[in-house]
Write a structure and sequence with these properties.
Elements lengths: L5 H13 L5 H6 L7 H16 L7
């Protein structure tokens, strides 16, 4: 994962986790530059962290 982009990935992930249901695609469409393998890796890492914290629905 590109460490310079990690804050942007985490920001995008948090936007997706907190947006109203159904608005995910619109958010993704506004950040096409972040839709890459680095985002997938960041999502997997965030999901693991959420599972460890017991937040299974968000994971």
């Amino acid at each position: 994962m590109n460490s310079e982009r990690q804050p942007a990935y985490l920001n995008l992930i948090n936007q997706l986790l907190t947006c109203p249901s159904g608005e995910e695609q619109e958010i993704l469409n506004t950040h096409p530059e972040l839709l890459d393998d680095g985002l997938v890796a960041a999502m997997l890492e965030k999901a693991d962290n959420l599972r460890e914290q017991g937040e299974l629905n968000n994971a």
